Design the sequence.
């Protein structure tokens, strides 16, 4: 049971000297009604000029030093920027916070996951794919039978009312 909810920042005009929230959108991902992933994407215009190190410095104030920088991306089938490069990662036994930047878009994104829930979700997705592959032949047979029955029902209805 996977669900996702997305929040987008409302359009606001900027006032000189007034801080504007740099968040562009936030995606909340749920597995069995439990939040397991939050992905925060930042507006390119509102973080223009900031570097990956600026983000690392800011995040390190709350999360400490990153456990890894430029780490390989590891698994979640939920939508992520496909062109993302991992800049840094903070990790403990229960969670993983990843700072990414779009290779082509330049958009920064922070992804926070619950490791136990993410692992359960990945296992469920893998099992679902296995069951789909196992049950696919029978579903195809059932679909062909249903289509044939529907075709016959349509034929009978049209035959009864047909007058040349």
Sequence:
């Amino acid at each position: 049971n996977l669900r996702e909810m997305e929040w987008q920042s409302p359009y606001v005009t900027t006032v000189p000297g007034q801080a504007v929230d740099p968040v562009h959108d936030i995606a909340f991902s749920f597995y069995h009604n439990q939040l397991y992933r939050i992905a925060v994407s930042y507006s390119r215009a509102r973080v223009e000029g900031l570097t990956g190190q600026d983000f690392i410095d800011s995040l390190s104030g709350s999360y400490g030093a990153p456990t890894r920088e430029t780490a390989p991306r590891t698994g979640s089938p939920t939508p992520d920027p496909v062109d993302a490069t991992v800049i840094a990662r903070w990790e403990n036994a229960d969670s993983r916070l990843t700072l990414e930047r779009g290779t082509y878009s330049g958009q920064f994104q922070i992804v926070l996951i619950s490791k136990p829930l993410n692992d359960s979700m990945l296992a469920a997705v893998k099992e679902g794919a296995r069951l789909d592959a196992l049950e696919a032949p029978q579903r195809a047979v059932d679909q062909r039978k249903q289509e044939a029955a529907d075709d016959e029902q349509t034929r009978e209805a049209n035959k009864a009312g047909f007058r040349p």
User: Anything to note?
Assistant: The beta strands are 2-8, 23-31, 34-42, 68-69, 84-91, 95-102, 108-114. Confidence is low (pLDDT under 50) at residues 74-81.
